[in-house]
Amino acid sequence: MSTTRHLINRQRRLAAAPPANRTRPGPPPAPEQDKPGQKPEQKQKRDRKPAQKPSVKKPGRGRGGSVLHRVVAALGLLTVLLGGFAGWAAMEAATLHDTAATRNTALTDTARTSEVKGMVTQAVNSVFSYNYADTARTDQAAKKLLTGKAVQQYADMLAQVRKQAPVQKLVLTTTVTDSGVELIDGDRARVLIFADQRNTRTAPKEETTYAAAMFAVDAVHQDGVWKIGNIDTFNR
């Protein structure tokens, strides 16, 4: 009976006891031991890590520098161009100042203008008037008062008149009604002519016709006389 009781008590003690394979917590890790002879300052330096310095970009010749150089170069080129333009403009102004328009004395020299107007008017009246009974007079006037291109131009213009004059007994009278001196440049002048022409024929019957004419002549001063050097009929 006692043996059975002891057995039961033993089983109870075994059941209440903790398992044998449970791991007991070990002791905490020991702090790092200082080496013999090590000073506290050395330990602090070892524990302290050097702080990283912020990276600072050094100023260099980057994009800003290149842009500045380009601006300076462009300004230099612009200065050269403006200088060249100023020189060209000065030469052009001198050229324009020396053109025929600026040398025109038709309005400033009234005596010269009156002389040109009078001589050219007389020359037109003489060479463009023709009488079948006195052709020598017209021929002499043409020889004296025409020069250059006007000689052939006049011959072509009066070819039909000379051909018909003996048959029709033609008398052509030209009278300048007005004239204007457009230009006088040294020994050359240009005059605008307005004239009336009366054409009278007596054969086979007497008949008279009238016509108005407008043309310009380029006059040349030769041997003290203003001669007709070119006849401009405005493509008529």
Structure overview:
The chain has 236 residues and is α+β, with helices and mostly antiparallel strands. It has a domain of 123 residues: Nuclear Transport Factor 2, Chain: A (Roll). The protein is built from 7 helices and 5 strands; from the N terminus they run ααααβαααββββ. It has a 5-stranded antiparallel β-sheet with strand order 1-2-3-4-5, sandwiched between helices. A hairpin with a 2-residue loop joins strand 2 and strand 3. It is rod-shaped.
How do the strands and helices of this protein lay out in sequence?
Layout: H1 2-16, H2 40-47, H3 63-97, H4 110-127, E1 130-131, H5 135-145, H6 150-157, H7 159-168, E2 170-185, E3 188-201, E4 207-222, E5 225-232
Antiparallel strand pairs: 1-2, 2-3, 3-4, 4-5
